[in-house]
């Protein structure tokens, strides 16, 4: 990739997100589209939620100009937090730089709830870009980080420290900047610390022990709640640069405490190790190593020096970098010999700093997804892909009562957004996704959506990522344009607790299919009549689904050249139900690969062309098979000896003719149930429809 470009189909996002931030508070109080704040700003839509409040897209009533407006929760509003926001406004308003977002106004709602107005910046975040593409080349990364270094150098000169740098706080705004096709902009100086001349009072606003930031990118001193300055931003920037070129952050863990301990005690992995074998310029390794030094005194002392060395690496002038031998030696010594006292101090301070955060997580109604250890797999990231994946403990739609969950859907929506269903005592229960609805608190919810939900992708982020068990998209009878459809599907993939997804009759992009394949808990997938970039889904594309071998239920309808996906599925030990319908031509190799999926209990095969072979004998190798749904032609060459050995199986077939000898042999074997009913064949999808077959019976781990 010679030029780093944003994907025009990527999810669009905006300002000020605070996912997994230590010190996050309770769910934000929200306003609705059409509400007017302070009689000046009319809300257009919600852009995101974080621990400290909400961000809205608004229009200034008098000027008819759009901005982003950030509010603090009323529950958080105190003299201290109000002063913080005043300081944030003062800090941000002083910053005038092309790679920083400008603050334009500050006020109070009803005298109790502060808000900040900033320029509206639209575009995908760096986090979204990395979620879609994994990583960038060294050249593209340097071109991206040079303007970020310059922007931070400018902010630090103004006495402003960001303190919460992370990929989701870098917006890739469209613009013509030479070889790059975007302008990177840093957003959210919401917890900035001012090093002003009258800093005595300013420093009390962010006193020791008051921890701000996102664990994956927090400096050691920030994790310990000690003094923070511009060198903490350099450390965070180093974490971001490391992740941008390797695809994984330098330090990971299963919870915030573990991650923060890694920052304080673990040796930085090499770029080659983190990228699983790629080679990088040794000079770049040294530069990032210095940015990530544990001791702030061993880091670069300003961002201008970082920019200088990155520029030298970009030119190939490795001798020009400012990393001295003395600094390298000091850094290596520090990494290899982390003192016991430092480790002990880190444990004590970090544990104390994170107690409030951990307690909040354990008391939350749903657990926050864990952060994978380094190296971070492509299938999961701490930040997800967008500004909407911010507050994993809160649903915009629902709240929990003693024994039920109460959903309140937007009253502005005249029509139902779909149907919410759940299985209870063997029966399916359903309510419309409209108005106020009550469901059992612990019900595993299936959401069959209507077209209105697909054309309004901004509605999806309002669900908690673990709130839905399954999403069913049936587009047989409606038209939805490709752009909002793909954006909606990408938003759906932020439901990282999703176990069931069915989708049909539409065009999706390769990147969208890739995101579906990265859903970590997906176990039931149906892709029917799907086209990828206006070409029918192929076996090669399907084989690239990363979670393919984790699936328990899988259905493909109208898939071409199925051999690659069948070859991969032959290694599955999890697949219990598999349907391959309308798949064109199958080869003998395809049949043999299917017969190797020993876990199969239900198999449906309908193909235009079948190989000249005894297919039933191959499928008889599937000793757990209880249901076989197939064309009559598939039975035509069946061995009579095989039929005699079949045990406890139901064969559903259509009325296409097959050998009378085969028919007689099937009738003779009393443990075989043969059903020749075209209407039943049309309903054979029952076992592949989670609204007709209780998913728990097949998804339960045995």
How would you characterize this protein structure?
Helix content is 31%, strand content 20%. The protein has 702 residues and is α/β, with parallel strands linked by helices. It has three domains: 131-187 and 214-363, Transferase(Phosphotransferase) domain 1 (Transferase(Phosphotransferase), domain 1), CATH 1.10.510; 395-511, no CATH class; 533-702, Alpha-Beta Horseshoe (Leucine-rich repeat, LRR (right-handed beta-alpha superhelix)). The strands form six sheets. The chain has a twelve-stranded mixed beta sheet. Strands 1-2-3-4-6-5 form a six-stranded antiparallel beta sheet, with helices on one face. Strand 11 (398-400) and strand 12 form a beta hairpin. Helix 3 packs antiparallel against helix 6 (230-246) and helix 3 (138-157) runs antiparallel to helix 10 (303-315). The protein is globular, with a radius of gyration of 28 Å. Mean pLDDT is 75; it is low at 5-28, 191-212, 324-328, 334-396 and 477-481.
Q: Mean pLDDT, as a whole number? A: 75
What proportion of the residues is helical, as a percent range? 25-40%
What coarse outline follows from CA principal-axis ratios? globular
Total tally of structural domains: 3
Oligomer, anyone?
single chain
CATH architecture of the largest domain: Orthogonal Bundle
Give me the side-by-side strand order of the main sheet: 14-13-16-17-18-20-23-24-25-26-27-28
- Tally of DSSP β-strands: 28
